[in-house]
Specification:
Blueprint: H1 7-14, E1 22-29, E2 34-41, E3 44-46, E4 57-61, H2 63-70, H3 76-82, E5 86-89, H4 91-100, H5 103-108
Parallel strand pairs: 1-4
Antiparallel strand pairs: 1-2, 2-3, 4-5
């Protein structure tokens, strides 16, 4: 995953803040038995603190799919449409993930 950087670091570095957004995302990687918490509070992102209680949105996938997203080869929405990402929550919050973390744009600049 991006030359040894943690997913938390990658999400932190690609975060594009959206005013007025207060959401908790819980991303579960089935193959790694691991949870990545994303707490978005206005212009702030917090990826610490382990498991999230009552997340606004939950994504379940595996690390190969998350790598494809964070490397700009796939969007969260695209992964959901093809069935490789299971999403629970309001669909607009899934679209918002692609807005707040524009990995595709970053990937095309490499």
């Amino acid at each position: 995953s991006d030359s040894g950087r943690s997913y938390e670091d990658i999400f932190q570095s690609q975060f594009r803040s959206q005013p007025g957004v207060h959401l908790k995302y819980k991303i579960t990687l089935k193959d790694k038995h691991r949870v990545i918490p994303l707490r978005i509070d206005n212009g702030q992102i917090d990826t610490t603190g382990g498991d999230l209680v009552y997340p606004d949105a939950e994504l379940t996938t595996d690390s190969a799919i998350l790598d494809a997203v964070t490397e700009g080869r796939k969007t969260f929405q695209g992964g959901f449409m093809e069935g490789s990402i299971v999403f629970k929550g309001d669909f607009k919050n899934l679209r918002l993930l692609d807005t707040m973390f524009p990995f595709m744009e970053a990937g095309s600049k490499k």
